[in-house]
Each structure stands twice: as structure tokens, then as C-alpha cells.
Amino acid sequence: MNDNEMTVEREDGPTSGRYVIKLSPTAEAEMTFTKGSDGIITITHTGVPPDFEGRGIAAKLVSYAIADARQHHFKIHPVCSYVVAQFRRHPEWADLKA
């Protein structure tokens, strides 16, 4: 699977949701979040199946969430250790961190 075949989709529920990439008929990568009433989403988990690790898939999920936050004017509270590390690596995202 190349980068052009990886499409991120956002799935929303009333109080939570996830960003997901379908990797195969039986595998998907996801980044889960909860929604606050204050316009903040809390990213709680990022997961990529072991067979797909090391391909930048988790980074693609985070980048999509950043673009989504900019477009829809919300902030992100990173709890997931991967997302916390990504915010440290990208100081240009500081305005989106809750």
C-alpha cells in the first residue's frame, strides 16, 4: 500500500470518534478521541497493526487531525504518548494544543 492509497476518514459519535485508515479487508489503523463540550478533542490512542508499522501511517493520522482542527477550529488535548511526541516535534502545531 502506498501513501496515495491511504485515505483517512473521520468517524463521529455523540461523545467520541476516531480517525481511521482501512489498510486491508481485515486491518485498519486508528486514532481515537473523546469530545469535550469546550471544543476540545482529547486524543487517547493511536494504533497501527504490527504488519503495517514503520510506514508513517500513525503520522498520517496525526497530520490529518491537525488539518481537521485547523479547518474546523478546534483544539487537541494529546493524551496518547505518540501524539504527545508528535506535538513536541512540531512546534508549529502549538496553537492547536489545548
What are the defining features of this structure?
alpha+beta, 98 residues, five-stranded mixed β-sheet, Aminopeptidase
Number of domains: 1
Summarize the helix and strand pattern as letters: EEEEHEH
Tally of alpha and pi helices: 2
- The general outline is globular
Q: What CATH first level would be assigned?
A: Alpha Beta
Number of strands: 5
Main beta sheet: 5 strands, mixed
| Rg result | 13 Å
Side by side, the strands of the main sheet go 1-2-3-4-5
Average pLDDT, all residues: 94
CATH architecture designation: 3-Layer(aba) Sandwich
Stretches where pLDDT is under 50 for at least 5 consecutive residues are none
Share in helix: 25-40%
Description of the molecule:
- The structure is a single chain.
- The chain is an alpha+beta fold.
- It has one domain: Aminopeptidase (3-Layer(aba) Sandwich), CATH 3.40.630.
- 26% of the residues lie in helices and 36% in strands.
- The protein has 2 helices and 5 strands, in the order ββββαβα.
- The protein has helices spanning 57-72, 81-89, and strands spanning 8-12, 16-24, 27-35, 40-47, 75-78.
- Strands 1-2-3-4-5 form a 5-stranded mixed sheet.
- The longest helix has 16 residues, at 57-72.
- The model has no long low-confidence stretch (mean pLDDT 94).
Summary of the model, kept short:
This protein is of the alpha+beta class and 98 residues long. It has helices at residues 57-72, 81-89; strands spanning 8-12, 16-24, 27-35, 40-47, 75-78. It is globular.
Summarize the SSE layout with pairings.
Layout: E1 8-12, E2 16-24, E3 27-35, E4 40-47, H1 57-72, E5 75-78, H2 81-89
Parallel strand pairs: 4-5
Antiparallel strand pairs: 1-2, 2-3, 3-4
